[in-house]
Amino acid sequence: MSIPAAPFPAAYSTLSAQALAAWVEARYSCTGPVTCTLLRRGLNDTYRVTGLAGRDRAALRVYRSGWRSPGEVEWELGFLRHLAGAGCAVSGPLPQPGGACWEVLEAAEGPRVAALFGWVEGRWLEAVPEDAAAYGKAAARLHTAADPFRAEGRFALDLDHLLTQPLAVIRPLLAESPEVWQELEAAAHRTHAALTALAPRLEWGPCHGDLHEGNARLEADGTVRLFDFDCGGPGWRAYDLAVYGWSLFSNSGQTPEAAEEAWRAFLAAYQSLRPLGAADLQALPLFVTARAIWFMGLNAGRAHEYGTEVPDLGFFQYGLKFIRDWEAWPEA
Question: Which of 7, 63, 201, 309 would be a feasible disulfide site paired with 279, CB 3.0-4.6 Å?
Fold first, then answer.
């Protein structure tokens, strides 16, 4: 491969906030100078935007190149429009005057989709029964509102997505630690087998895909508003709920007993509006393990951006310890 004179190829770039502000100002109704501030780099980049007509702030997401196709983004934004139309409390996309909700930007590493979303006010949810119950009811309302949604063009949150693909990207990073790899592979295989047996009896439908407490805010009137549907897609509803359990029990800042109390409150509140079948209840702890493996694969898949010292051996050892502890937990 010959080295081009310029620009040098990039695996990942951070787009100029000033240039994005000019992009917003050229496409949206604005009341004054637009400001754009990078808030965080995550799976995608999120910017805070001010100066739009009719709102104090908005959130601009720039999807990373190769992460979501335009068709997959259209599914996500269409899902959000459907949920908002059904009265579900979500942060929906903000259309341009012509109706477009997303646009492709040409970055150094390749095309990246950009979309503007409504800003979500309110406080973070805490891992306490009251907040967990409010979140459980919000999840039930989400699934009920999502039931009629039908659209093509999105990946499924199936066992290939949750277990098989993550293992494939993890394996090269554990080539020098065969004992860690073998234990992780064994955990994935037994989880896969157990969920395969249950799959015909599990509820399936459009899911948020990332229902941890960081993707919601509790507003002043008690409304739990959901955002960041980037990992959503058609999938098992028990997996959607299990993400919250994984987040609770993997949080080293709280005791297992406190996590269990919040988890019970979340599930009880969900089932007060939308009862779960016996198979879904049986699958919940299995999906917590699947989520842990998916999360390890997610980070392994970004090693070309962050370096192999970020998802290092300690990262995978910690993930395996969580799986061991979770499978040994009496309530799991």
Answer: 201
Q: Concatenated DSSP letters for 74-103?
A: HHHHHHHHHHHHTT--B--B---TTS---E
Question: Rounded to an integer, what distance in angstroms lies between the CA atom of residue 301 and that of residue 295?
Answer: 10
The mean-pLDDT minimum among 33-37, 169-173, 300-304, 318-322 falls in 300-304
Number of other CB atoms surrounding residue 298 within 10 Å: 16
252: confidence class by pLDDT, cuts 50, 70, 90: confident
> Residue 2: its pLDDT value, please?
65
Measured CA to CA, the distance from residue 57 to residue 123 in angstroms comes to 16
Q: Which of 293, 43, 280 is nearest to 140 (CA)?
A: 280
CB atoms within 10 A of CB 152: 7
> How far is 134 from 269, CA to CA, in rounded Å?
7
Beta bridge partners, 224, equal 218
Closest C-alpha among 174, 147, 322 to residue 248: 322
The token duo for 122 is: 């309110």
Q: Closest Cα to residue 27, out of 101, 77, 97?
A: 97
Q: How many angstroms separate the CA atoms of 293 and 184, rounded? A: 8
Q: pLDDT for 176-226, tens place per residue?
A: 999 999 999 999 999 999 999 999 999 999 999 999 999 999 999 999 999
* Cβ-proximal residues to 35 (8 Å cutoff; 6+ apart), any chain: 21, 49, 50, 51
Note the pTM of the prediction, 2 decimals. Answer: 0.95
3-state SS string over 222-288? CCEEECCCCCCEEEEHHHHHHHHHHHHHCCCCCCHHHHHHHHHHHHHHHHHHCCCCHHHHHHHHHHH
Q: Three-class SS of residue 157?
A: strand
Looking at residue 308, its pLDDT comes to 86
Residues 129-160: tens digit of each pLDDT: 999 999 999 999 999 999 999 999 999 999 99
Contact assessment for residue 228 and residue 77, using Cβ atoms and an 8 Å cutoff: no
How confident is the model at residue 251, as a pLDDT? 87
Measured at the CA of 83, the angle between CA 80 and CA 84, to 5 degrees, comes to 85
